[in-house]
């Protein structure tokens, strides 16, 4: 884990996500922020790898759309985030890992989702992390990655 990854994990691990989300109206308001993109990505491929699954928003969306989480896999660096996702989606397949060392075999991932995940990486970590993701993608894979530009 790089120094910045250590800092990111420590930052998110310190929160009580259950209490934080109960008191955060923005989460409920934005629960369907990427809904159209989600439906477009999963219409032909319901197997879903959520990179940077965070609070499990997409796990809840997968359950709503598909009726279960049998095809949902979530990855996050923060054990706190994974714990919160597990609390409301115990059947989700979750793994704690870094974008720089994805725990997947070469050419295996058919569909990836990374909404506001890669933005946590330092600029010099983006290219190696995307190369690592490319290693894991199945030929013809589909994905969604959102990034916010820094000033």
What attributes characterize this protein structure?
151 residues, alpha/beta, 5 strands, 42% helix, globular
Task: Describe what this molecule looks like in 3D.
The protein has 151 residues and is of the alpha/beta class. 42% of the residues lie in helices and 20% in strands. It is built from seven helices and five strands. The protein has helices spanning 3-13, 17-22, 25-29, 35-42, 57-66, 79-88, 123-136, and strands at 48-51, 72-76, 93-96, 109-115, 137-146. A five-stranded parallel β-sheet has the order 3-2-1-4-5. Helix 6 (79-88) links the parallel strand 2 (72-76) and strand 3.
**Residue share in β-strands:** 15-25%
Succession of helices and strands: HHHHEHEHEEHE
Q: What is the first-to-last residue Cα distance? A: 26 Å
Q: What would the principal axes of the Cα set say about the shape? A: globular
Structural class determined from secondary elements: alpha/beta
Largest sheet composition: 5 strands, parallel
Given as residue ranges, the uncertain stretches (5+ residues, pLDDT < 50) are 23-29
What is the helix tally? 7
The percentage helix is 40-55%
Tell me the strand order in the biggest sheet.
3-2-1-4-5
Mean pLDDT: 83
**What is the C-alpha radius of gyration, as a whole number of Å?**
15 Å
Topology, number of strands: 5
